[in-house]
Write a structure and sequence with these properties.
heterodimer, A: about 325 residues, mainly alpha, B: alpha/beta, 2 domains, eight-stranded mixed beta sheet, four-stranded antiparallel beta sheet, 12 strands, about 25% strand, Peptide/nickel transport system permease protein (chain A)
Amino acid sequence: MWRYMGRKLGIYGITFVVAVTINWMIPRFMPGDPVSSMLNRASVSDPEALERMNTYYNEVFGLDTPLYQQYLSFWSGLLRGDLGISVWLYPEPVTDIILRHIPFTLGLLLPAIILSWIVGNRFGAFAARSKILDNTVLPLGYILTATPYMWLALLLAWALGVVGGFFPTAGGYSFALTPSWSWPFISNLLTHWFLPFLSMFLVALGGWAIGMRNMIIYELEADYSNYLQALGAPRRLIRRYAFRNAMLPQITGLAVQLGTIIAGALLTEIVFNYPGLGTLVLNSLNNNDFFLLQGIFLFVVVGVLIANFIIDIIYVLVDPRTRVQMTGGAS
Amino acid sequence: MTLRVNDLKVYYQTLRGDVHALDGVNFDLADGEIMGLAGESGCGKSTLGKSLIRLDGRMRHVDGTIELDGENVPIADDRAMNRFRYHEISLIPQYAMSALNPTRKIGRMINELLRSRGVRPADVAEELDRRLELVGLDPDVLKRFPIELSGGMKQRVVMVMATLLDPSLLIADEATSALDVSTQRSVVESMVEFRDRGYVKSMIFVTHDISLVYQMADTVMVMYAGRIAEKAPASTIINDPQHPYTKMLIGALPEVGTTTEDTRLEGIPGTPPGLLHPPTGCRFKDRCPIASEECSQTPPLVEIEPGHWAACWKTGR
């Protein structure tokens, strides 16, 4: 067991190093010079002043040193939790900006992904129970998964926000309020949170339900189900077994799904102008702020790695077959 | 008399019509009898085995009755049938290797099954251990997952599990087909042992392996195209078969000591008839070397000597 965990940790460690390196490389080989674009905004007309500012900023960001030195100082900064200074929001440190935005993204994504997974699985298992349910739930599930995400999000924003007026359609909270732990602020936060959450939840729901329904039907046709039926075991017991065994591929599916987290967040947050990492990615891209971009991707990579590691552990706990293979078994 | 099957007809429903998989099957099974049920693929032997415990979705009970220990067995009524399953009629399935839930420890699964059938696991726990030891398994297997066991071990676990409630009738459907020859032998010996100790009253052993049946069975019943061709004590079937189909079937078996140079093994020319539109009269007549006029009438299954039944016009008199 511990050897397995150690090996897994090693693999994740290597993945982390590779990801960080690629992460460091990409913005540096992207076209566009961040310093000059920042200075463009400042619209300095004196060419001599511009030249001096250019040298100054290049020195501040460490862009005048050779690449390998930039790479090494990036790692040493990383280990100290220092991801550099943002170009776009100069002179705020990248870490601070990300930490300010991350609660929004996590608060949106985690409930949406986990709840849609749980509800979808229940729903799918329920649908596999009878023909009538199957004939209603299944088409509904297909419609939900087939809906382009943006379209569904816009539709929700239009119906519940613009026409219905139940929920605000943009922002993380009203600008009139200052963030605090008071009830009005929290309820305001929740109303802003609801629409983006609902859109992500609905889109993911259909896929999980369909997957679960198919898996359950497959498991109910499996030999052990047939045998239990022949021995007169009640449907309840057989369903319980089928549900548990059908769950295993769904857990793997969840791990895969977590990888697409950033794409989902990006679209949702742009549609609803939600102040999470997604909008931050867009802004930093538009402003050639590659320190910020780098920092965000680093957080995403670490998040995905941690999530996958957790699922690896869960999988070992729920599937005895992987557990037995690991401990070598005794037969 | 343990089991009495009367004119049993079970059809498979397909889009092209009914497949007459069992078309009027009659036989008796005595207390303590182990009956081998042999025949080619598609002759209905597995269907007969299944019909006695659980009809699957496509199978339809058309006609005929089944009596077990003098009680009517309502095979067409899935719900009423539940009372008999496991307690009175049990099964070792064709797929014994995958008959156990892969994600439950074997002991826990057996306990859950017992509890769902109204039996307190503690009441039979001792018996379970004893029987596992009887078939050569350490009771520790109960703490293992099915993937930790070899095929033969799983087979024996299923055998012990299936017979734990001392059923009146055990159906073993190709129970040894997936095993190698030496494991086959030990499984077969355990089955006989179980009968001798009274764990099961009588047994139907479905197989296509006649030589294996000869080692263990008291009687052998040969089926052909949904009907019974011949039923007799095992030695009679092997040494003195009467029905032309049985004769050719036995003739197709290799014998120890003979080589292909002495005698060439004979197969049976032709193929069995399709059961979607079965032929009238004797179903073997197209392949039968001695078929004649009268074979266009269906031959009845008659007792040609005590305990020896055959369905052929040529043997009846």
